Amino acid sequence: MEKNVPKTLLPYSVAMSVYDKEDAHFLKQSIESILNQTHRTNDFVIICDGKLTPELYQVLKSAKDKYGDVIRIVQPKEKLGTSGCANLSLRLCKNELIGKMDSDDIALPERFEYQVRRMMLHPELDIIGSFIEEFSSETGETIATRKVPLSSKAVLKFAKRRSPFNNQTMLFKKSVALACGGYDTNLVRCEDYDFITKMLQYGAVGGNIPKVLLRYRVTEGNLERRRNLANTKAFIKVRWNMHRRGFSSLSDFIIPSVMQVLLFALPSKLTGILYKKLMR
What is the C-alpha separation between 150 and 157, in angstroms, rounded? Predict the structure, then answer.
């Protein structure tokens, strides 16, 4: 743990969105991992995007019954999509610090204690993330560790071509996120990367903790989603928007876009190697 930090840690909110195709068992594990933190949240906002399955609603009801007002379950009248849910969470979260959490991943018990302490020790930080451990959804075995740049300078440089954060580990300041305009609701994919680069271009200071604080669930469909046509188009669109905003150079746009096209076009075995070696 960091030294010379007040023993009383700042409160934080957690934002999660749930969709109808989620696995109820995975959702339960994810929620429990948040509510069993060594520094527990006092504000867990869960957005239900569209009608969920009875099994998912039962998981949410059980969590609400067990943890009470800490959990706020929100059911919008219409389906909002990923970006719309993220913006709604931004508005609803009551604390300045907001942590992201996906509904099928597992936060390690000290995740938010480490992150909040780091933000308190370095108040200039607006975003803090960490390494993640990718694990097989079928066996539970660790596949790999995804490391990300640590310093604010390295984060900014890395962001020109790839996301400098494991987005599901991010803890960020609400005021800065709102000031930069939040999430782009015109994007249906890669919205997290776009959001990150807007914050950095606005002047946000980011960093990462060199420690695994979250386990990221890998299924057979993960790589296929990364290499499909819709994801490829979204990837290129976000990078073109970054270039048009003046955040990245033309070469920063071209090189990763070519790599993404190769990821889409090459056979699956080769794309798996390409992703692990060059795009992880």
Answer: 11
Supply the pTM of this predicted model: 0.89
Give the whole-angstrom CA distance, residue 145 versus residue 182: 29
Task: Take residue 2 and report the two structure tokens written for it.
Answer: 């960091």
CATH of 13-219, one of 3.40.1790.10, 3.20.20.140, 3.90.550.10, 3.40.50.2000: 3.90.550.10
Q: Extract the tokens encoding 217.
A: 């669930």
Listed by start position, the domains of the chain span 13-219, 220-280
- List Cβ neighbours of 277 (8 Å cut-off, separation of 6 or more): none
Structure tokens at 165: 């954060």
For residue range 116-151, list pLDDT tens digits in order: 999 999 999 999 999 999 998 888 888 889 999 999
48 residue type, one letter: C
Distance CA 248, CA 251 (A): 8
Residue whose structure tokens are 């942590």:
99
The first and second tokens of residue 238, run together, are 């976000």
